[in-house]
Amino acid sequence: MDLRLLSSFLAVVEERHFKRAAARLFLSPPAVTQHVRQLESELGTQLLHRNPVSPTRAGARLAGHARTLLATANAALDDIAEVVREPLPDTPRPLRIGIMGHGSAELTPAAINAFRRARPDVPVDLRQLNFTEHVTALTEDRVDVAFIRPAPDDERIAVDRLTTEQRIVAVPESSALADAREEGVRVADIVDLPFFRVPGHTPASFTDYLYFHHEAQRRSPDCALTPQEVLTGVVAGRAAGSGLKSFARYYAWPGAAFVPVLDAPWESSYLAVRPDDGNPEVRIFRALTLALAQELRPRIER
Q1: Measured between alpha carbons, how far is 7 from 9 in angstroms, rounded to an integer?
Q2: What are the structural domains of the chain?
Q3: pTM for the structure as a whole
C-alpha cells in the first residue's frame, strides 16, 4: 500500500476538507482527490462521504491503521538516519519500559507488542514501578519510557496524554459504600475514609491524585507502595484505595468493591520520557504508542 495515498487520505479525514488537506500536504486539491480515489479503488470500497466530508465506516477503521502505519514509517526513517550517523553496537541495548500499576490499561500491552513486532531485534525489559517512582525511575535512568499517572510537575520529564478515565474508590465488600458501586458516590462521601499512606518522598502530584486532593484523607497507619498492597489491605478492611475506572478490570479481587466517584475530576494516564533522550528506540516506541492511543482510547475510556 502506497503511504502517499494513506497520508492524503488521513489528512482529508483530519481536516474534513480536501482543499485544507491539500494545503497541509503542499499538494494540489486534484492530486489529493486522485489519491483518495486510487485508494478507494484499491480497497474496493468508499472511504469518504464527500458532502460534507466525513469518513465512512470503512474509512474510520482505515484511519486508525493509517496513523499507526505512518507513525511507524516516520519513526523508521528517523531510526535509519540514526544508524547512518552512529555505528551500531554489537548487542542492542534493551528498551526499558516502566509501568505503574496497570499502566494505561489495554493500551500498555498493545504498545509493547507493537514495538516487539516492529523492532524484533531490540530486547524489551519490563519494570514494575511503585508509587514513589513516579518521577525518579526516569530521572535516575532506570527506565527509558514509563506509563504513569498523573503528569509529574517536573521539567526533566516530557509526557504524552494517553487515556482519560473516571475515578474510583476501592473499599471492602462489607463497607456500606460497596452498595453504591452502580450509582456511584461523591467526594464528600469518602473524604473521611482512612486511605493508605505512602512514603514521604512520594511526589506531591501523585499523592494529590491518590487522595482526591484532600490532605485529611492521609490517615491510615498502613503504608502501601503497589496496587497489590493496597488491595490486600482493602479486602482486610484496614484502609481504602483509589484509582482509575480500568483499575477494576485489572484488579478484580474477591472482597474488594470498586465504586465510581462521580464528582471527582477525571484523570489521565501518560507516557513519560526524558525530553533530551536521543535513543531512537524511544522515539519509535513513543510514535507507536501515540498512534495506538488514537485507535484504542474510545474502548478504554468507555
Answers
A1: 5
A2: 3-85 (1.10.10.10), 95-163+268-300 (3.40.190.10), 167-265 (3.40.190.10)
A3: 0.72
